[in-house]
């Protein structure tokens, strides 16, 4: 019996991590769910250091990127809201999601576009995502108090919750000015 091949296989298995990724929606599909009768207009925004500081001050979470993927949503030529595409880290990998914010600054919905973690995909459950609908920047966003935590998805819940608050601050600082 030759133990070398068995040891190599065991070593390879021990060093490999399970990779899991799922794409659920495209940006266009998310836009249609968040604003069914609206037309999307690409409106990518550049964010200055001063604006990043304002966002952090309002949301308690820092804006990491200099640009944000934003779509102005219009119906009959009138602004009905914004779809903002964002990425937050779950435990190790990015979660890509879209947030709809209406013209008054209220969340219309959240859609998970891609989830790359092995655990925590329960954040895709509609009842959990619905907890954000109607929230504004002035509302409280404390996980386990205002927004329920999901066992097994704590980091995903926390980071998406923080991300939504940050995007509401971005809306106020960058899109309403």
Please sum up the structure shown.
It comes from Pseudoalteromonas xiamenensis. This protein is α+β, with helices and mostly antiparallel strands and 177 residues long. It has five helices and seven strands; from the N terminus they run H-E-H-E-E-H-E-E-E-E-H-H.
Compute the gyration radius: what is it? 19 Å
> Which H/E pattern describes the elements?
HEHEEHEEEEHH
Helix/strand/pairing category: alpha+beta
Average pLDDT, all residues:
88
Biggest sheet descriptor: 7 strands, antiparallel
Strand composition percent? 25-35%
Helix coverage percent: 25-40%
Task: Using the alpha-carbon principal axes, give the shape.
Answer: globular
Pfam families: FMN_bind
Domain FMN-binding: 90-171
GO molecular function, one term: electron transfer activity
GO cellular component, one term: plasma membrane
What does this structure look like?
With 177 residues, this protein is an alpha+beta fold. Helix 3 packs across helix 5 (154-175). The model is unreliable at 4-19 (pLDDT under 50). Strands 1, 2, 3, 4, 5, 6 and 7 form a seven-stranded antiparallel beta sheet that branches. The protein has one domain (18-175). It has helices spanning 3-15, 27-34, 49-59, 126-130, 154-175; strands at 22-23, 39-42, 45-46, 67-75, 78-89, 94-102, 107-115.
